[in-house]
Every structure is written in C-alpha cells, then in structure tokens.
TrEMBL record:
Domain Cytochrome c: 617-710
Superkingdom in the source lineage: Bacteria
Keyword Cytoplasm attached: no
Record's protein name: Glucose/arabinose dehydrogenase, beta-propeller fold
Keyword Iron attached: yes
Organism field: Dyadobacter psychrophilus
One GO MF term attached to the UniProt entry: electron transfer activity
UniProt cross-references to PANTHER family, sorted A to Z: LARGE, MULTIFUNCTIONAL SECRETED PROTEIN, LARGE, MULTIFUNCTIONAL SECRETED PROTEIN-RELATED
InterPro entries: 6-blade_b-propeller_TolB-like, ARM-like, ARM-type_fold, Cyt_c-like_dom, Cyt_c-like_dom_sf, DUF7133, Quinoprot_gluc/sorb_DH_b-prop
Length: 775
C-alpha cells in the first residue's frame, strides 16, 4: 500500500561544525584535526541527529541526512532513475540475530523515495517491490528497474504502469535454472549490475556480464572470472574497480577490463594504504587479535565494500576522480587518489593516518556509496550492530563473544542515507530525463556530472531512437560541441559509445576518432573497433596499427588488448611491434602476461576432454563455486592474494601438502569443518569457515575442481603412462584400455567423511590433519 512519510527539520540541525582548518599539499587537503579517540564505545542506539554528531569529515565538508528509519530499514544499495527518484534495496532479514534466524524469509523489499521539493531530503516513500529474498542488485533502465535476489542469478524487470509508486508489472529478462546456488552464505554472492561505459553491465563473483537489448539480457562470459565481493564501480573512461572483503583487499581489478583477463600489481598500492584508522575501538573484528592494534582498533581493511568514483561537480577540483570505499567494521569511509602513469594505475590515501569520514557510533555501518544526480557523494549506512554474516558468528567464536558482550545483536531494523556536501556546493537541477525528448538527452552527454552522462547514454540506447544518430556523429567527431573545454572529450567518448549501443557505428567514424587530438578518444575508438578487427577488416586494422607507436601509453596498451589474440597476420605484426618497442614497459609486459593467462583459461574445456561427462560437470560446477567464493581469499590462481605489501588473508593452495594427489580426505575435512590456527607455521587473518551446510554434491564439486586445477599429479609407477590409471580390459576388443587418472571426489566419499566427523563442532587445525594415503 502506498504511503508517504514527511520529515521536518531533521536534517538542517544536524550539520557538522569544525573548529579546525586543513593544510593544502598539491591541491589536496592532507591534514585535519584528529577527532578524540573513544577507547570504550558502547552499542547504544543513537538517533540520526545523535549519530551524525559522532561523525567527522575534513574542513569544508558536512553531512546531511537524506532518509532514515522508519522510511527505510536495513538499506544496502541505492539507484536513481532518470528523473532522480531513488530506489533503495533493503535486506530486512539480514542478521536479525547472531544466529541468522529467519534470514531466508522472503520479506525484504525495494523502496522508492522521492524529494518532492528538491531540498535534498526525501519526503515521499512507497514500497516499490515487496516479498523479496534479500535483493542484491538493481539497475534502472528507462521506466524499468532490473532486480536480482539472493540465491539466484535470475534477473527480473519491474515497472509501475499506473503511477502509484508500486511495481505492478514483472517480467523475466534473464533466467538460469542450472545455476549452482550457494544458499548458505549470502555474503559470497553477486552484487553490482553496474552499467559501464561500454554498455555492458558488470557484477561481482559470477564470471559473466550482461547487455540489455530488446527487453532481454545478452550474456557474455568473462573467461578468467569476475572479481570483487560487495559492490563495484567505474570511472569516466570505463575502468572498473572491485574490492574483495574476503581477501581484505580494498581495491583490485582496475588495471584492465576483466574480459581481457586478470591483472593486479603487488605495488598498485602500498602496505600503508591497506591500514585503516578508526576513531573508536573496534573489537568486533572477524580476524580476531591479529587484526587489532593494542588499542583495539582495526589495523587493516577487513570489509572493504560499496566503492565508487566521485564523478560530480560539486566538490573542489582535486576531488574529481577520487576512489571512495566503505569500511563498515572500521566505521569509516576511505578517500583515495587514483594516480595513472605509464598506463598503470595506483592508489594512495589522501589523508595521513586518517579517513575521509569516520564515526564513533558503533552502529554506523557504511556499506555503499555513489555520486548522485545533484553531484554530491551519497553514503548508505546499514546502521546496525552486526555486520558479518552468520558463518563468522557461531557460538564460541571470537566475534560472537564480542557481539554478545557489547550487545550488538540488539540493533536491527534501522538505516540511514546521507549525502556529503561541500561549503561551495550549490543546489542542482533535478533531472527529468524520462520526460525529455531524445534530442534533449543528447545535451547531457557533455554534462560535468558523470551520473548525467551515463544515464543519458543509457536512456538513448534503451529507447533505440535512430533519429539522433546524425547528431551523435556530429558530437563524436567534434562538429557539434555540447560541453565546456574540460568535458569536450567526454562528450565525444559518450557519443561514440551511444552509437555503439544503437548499433550505428561505422569504420569511417572510427578512423576519424582514431585521429582525434585527445588520446582518451583514440583509445575509445580502438576499444569499440574490436568487432571489426575480429572480422578481419584490413583498413581498420591498418589504422589501428598506426597507433602502435602512439605517444600515449593507454592507447598502446589498448591496441595490444584489442589485437593480441587476432588470427590476422597483419595484427600479429602490429602486436610484435608494440612488444618489441616495449621490452622495458611494465604495463605492456604485464598486459601480455594477463592476456596469455586468459587464453589458457579459455582452453579449460579441452583439459577435461578425456573425462566422462559426469566428472566434467562436477569440475565445471566446482570451478564456478571456487571463483565466486574461495578466490576471495585464496586468489583466482590459488596462489593467495598479496596486494599492498600487507601479506595474505589466507594461504596459497598451490603446493599445499593437502593437495597432494593421494591426499583427498583431509581437503574434504577442511571444507566441511573449516580450518583454524597457523598453517605451516604462518598465521593468516582470515578464517576458513565451515561449509558443511552445503550438500555433499556441492562439497564434492569444489574439492574436485581444486584438486583438478591446483593439486598434485598422480603417483607414477614403473612402466605406467603419465596421467593414466592401471590398465583395464575392453570386453569388446580384448585390448587393454587406459582411463585418465581422476582427481574426482564423489558425493559418496564426502558423505562418508561427513558421517565420521558429525560430532565435531570446531574447526580443524593443521596438527590434527595427519597425511594419509587412500587405497
């Protein structure tokens, strides 16, 4: 039922006041007064006004309340439609107690909020969709809202056809009945659905990306797998940023587009960047004592989430393009500089041993961020006591003891959304894109706020209005200027991608763009030209070849990415030229390595060719589970994740004694019951949780995949053919037939080990897992 809730004066009285000034260094406010540290915080509930009084920002910035309970509860994500109305995904059953009782009930919702008088405060609310199971992903497209729920990869379109603010039309746009559901750990599932510059929607965990065309999702496989955990974002040029809480990694995957492979540098940020600086004691840390300083503050990112790139126009110029990532365990939000040199991207904290936003309210749980239509940064505060999922809060655990002693489980059913404004911020016009003609939308492609550019491009493509194609070509070639000097190149880039989305690109336009004075436009043209290059267009390949010696590193890297796997002799010559000239170029060499690895992964199927169909399906299923769950801590290559010089959250699997071919049962035991304590004498900050709530088939599949891809080779006996099992007799021919030695673990074997350890209630230690040989 439609309902409206009015807020009166709740916001303006809550603005923060500062009694200090910052110093400027290279145009960035680098220092400001450190708030007083609170060593003994309580879990007491604070009203929005009281909570905001505990929050600290640098001088010149202040916080404003946009919405709070009872209008919204348990918010996890926000999205605006073309008219600036805000959708809020609310996980109403998430961790309502420390045992996650009732978490799988379908009572969550998505609310639709509206600011009817454009004062920055939401004053109207309706439940747009109810009876959902923990909604995970949202994306607005025209008058539709695309939504995904927990435990599925299915996506549905919802629409309000009568204007009452409640969806009354639902249709499937993507369904996959064969998807392997991980229904016992809702933290380790997909999120995002971010419509990137390239017109593909990206998400975390699942190795796919989507493109919305004619009311259906087209699916493309990301060969080397996706990345990240909760949230992802993109910058002005389509560079995607992930984070990975399981591996305690605040940012990764931003060097190249994931479709080309995985590329991260150990020094893309340093160990100091990985440290976090709360202003209160934060004892409720999943990693326990190794993740706490002597004053009981979190010493390292452990729950990085909800990242965004600031792409608005309301803040000082030095803020543009900065990386924002939330850390709900630290009760803080990080602001980082994105430094791009020689084709390589690195990050650094803007402030010295401080965070951009920090709070001494124990229930402040920032889980998402976004640049809004008004050009300000928005923060989603789930505002609750427990933030970790039930797998990490069992009775007797370090975290459970802290939750119970502080009383964190009592704080549920709340939630706030804030926006951060600067003293120079101005009121912005409210968008009306859904009501505008296509010709009017064109003007937004050069808007200084990236939200407007992205949504104008998306809206034009969704309408499939071919009448704007001539005007788009004029903008793309610079014949028509719709932006100020600073944003001219971005208008051309968005025009090019809009034409691509309308299937209206041609080689003549691409060649013109490849000769653009701005390197970022040239790079875009190479990226868009890939379908033509793949089809063997010699004229376009020749033009791309001229950019092999471009003065800009990004252009040369893109040429390498776009041509590397081409079968064309002409393309191979161009690639050789780039690599010959770039023998000492770190980014080019690393990109080549990533492309090689990606191609190796692409041949994954051929490695299974000698297996029976059932075994093949088991390993493929396990691969999906590993990439979506285990890779968060162990790395996609099972070599561990070490970025920023701060060590690894979990041990490498490659080379582990538990993965010797004859070692089968111990790996199953670990997956079922978990693992704690040092491994080979080394401590790790992340704990291997028990996965016994999953089925025997689930455990068998992930264990089989790990053994297949990362385990040791079968023992070889004298006279035995490598990789082959003892001979068997073919009854028809009478000749011996050899079957491939199998790393497969069956569901029956898992069941047996499960029954043997049924009474065990604690995780295994390495000392308990003696090496053993199976018959």
């Amino acid at each position: 039922m439609k309902h409206a809730i009015a807020f009166s004066g709740l916001l303006l009285a809550s603005l923060l006041i500062y009694n200090c000034t910052g110093t400027k260094k290279n145009g960035v406010t680098a220092e400001f007064l450190t708030p007083e540290f609170n060593p003994n915080p309580t879990g007491k509930y604070l009203s929005p006004k009281e909570s905001m009084a505990t929050m600290h920002l640098p001088p010149g910035y202040r916080l404003q309340l946009v919405a709070s309970e009872p209008m919204i509860k348990e918010p996890v994500a926000i999205a605006w439609d073309g008219n600036g109305r805000m959708y809020v995904a609310e996980m109403l059953t998430y961790m309502q107690d420390a045992d996650a009782v009732g978490e799988q009930q379908k009572i969550s919702r998505i609310s639709l909020l509206e600011d009817t008088n454009n004062d920055g405060v939401m004053d109207k609310s309706t439940v747009f969709i109810d009876s959902l199971l923990l909604p995970r992903m949202m994306q607005t497209v025209g008058n539709e809202l695309l939504v995904n729920e927990t435990n599925t990869i299915d996506i549905y379109s919802y629409r309000d056809t009568n204007g009452d603010g409640k969806a009354d039309l639902k249709k499937p746009v993507y369904q996959n009945d064969k998807y392997v559901v991980n229904d016992v750990n809702m933290e380790h599932q997909r999120s995002g659905l971010d419509w990137n510059l390239d017109n593909w929607m990206y998400l975390t965990y699942d190795a796919v990306r989507f493109r919305y065309t004619n009311g259906k999702m087209q699916v493309d496989t990301i060969v080397s797998g996706s990345s990240g955990q909760w949230g992802l974002t993109h910058d002005n040029y389509g560079r995607i940023f992930y984070s990975r809480a399981g591996g305690e990694i605040p940012a990764l995957g931003f060097q190249i587009n994931p479709k080309y492979g995985t590329l991260d540098f150990p020094d893309q940020y340093n160990a100091e960047f990985s440290e976090v600086w709360p202003i209160i004691a934060t004892p409720d840390v999943q990693g326990g004592p190794p993740r706490l300083r002597p004053n009981e503050t979190l010493n390292h990112f452990t729950a990085p989430t909800g990242q965004s790139i600031y792409r608005g126009e309301q803040y000082p110029a030095d803020f543009s393009g900065d990386y924002i990532v939330c850390e709900p365990v630290a009760r803080a939000v990080r602001r980082a500089k994105v430094v791009h040199q020689n084709g390589k991207t690195t990050l650094r904290n803007v402030y010295q041993r401080k965070e951009f936003l920090s709070s001494s309210d124990m229930n402040f749980r920032p889980v998402n961020s976004a640049t809004g239509p008004d050009g300000n940064l928005y923060i989603v505060d789930m505002h609750r006591g427990i933030i970790q999922q039930g797998n990490w809060t069992p009775p007797g655990s370090f975290l459970r003891q802290k939750i119970d002693s502080i009383g964190l489980a009592k704080n549920v059913g709340h939630g706030r959304i804030y926006r951060i404004v600067h003293e120079s911020s101005k009121m912005a016009a409210k968008p009306q894109m859904l009501n505008e003609k296509s010709a009017e939308l064109l003007l937004h492609l050069g808007h200084p706020n990236g939200w407007w550019r992205d949504n104008a491009q998306k809206e034009l493509i969704a309408r499939a209005d071919k009448s704007v194609i001539p005007a788009l070509k004029d903008i793309a070639t610079g014949k028509r200027n719709i932006a100020t000097n600073e944003f001219e190149h971005l208008a051309r880039i968005h025009a090019l991608w809009t034409l691509e989305g309308l299937d209206a690109m041609d080689t003549a336009l691409l060649i013109t763009a490849m000769n653009d004075a701005d390197a970022r436009v040239r790079k875009t043209a190479v990226w868009i030209s890939e379908p033509y290059l793949k089809s063997g267009d010699e004229k376009l390949t020749t033009q791309v070849g001229k950019l092999a010696s471009d003065t800009d590193d990004d252009v040369r890297v893109q040429v390498l990415l776009s041509l590397y796997n081409s079968k064309s002799d002409q393309a191979k010559v161009i690639v050789s030229e780039i690599l010959d000239k770039g023998k000492n170029h770190e980014m080019l060499l690393a990109t080549k390595t990533a492309l090689d690895k990606n191609e190796n992964v692409r041949t994954f199927g051929s490695r299974l060719g000698q297996m029976d169909e059932e075994s093949r399906k088991l390993i493929i299923s396990g691969a999906a589970i590993f990439k979506s769950l285990c890779a968060s801590c162990h790395g996609a290559d099972a070599k561990g994740l070490a970025i920023g010089g701060a060590g690894m959250a979990a041990p490498a699997l490659v080379g582990s004694p538990r993965l010797e071919f004859i070692e089968k049962n111990n790996l199953v035991r670990i997956v079922l019951k978990g693992l704690t304590g040092p491994v080979e004498g080394k401590e790790y900050t992340s704990i291997m949780p028990a996965m016994e709530a999953n089925s025997d088939e689930w455990v068998a599949s992930v264990v089989s995949y790990i053994r297949h891809d990362f385990g040791g080779k079968p023992p070889r006996k004298k006279g035995e053919i490598p990789g082959m099992a003892p001979a068997a007799v073919n009854n028809e021919s009478g000749f011996p037939v050899r079957k491939a030695s199998s790393p497969i673990v069956t569901a029956g074997e898992v069941k047996k080990i499960r029954e043997e350890s049924a009474s065990r209630t604690t995780a295994w230690t390495i000392q308990e897992l003696k090496p053993e040989i199976q018959e």
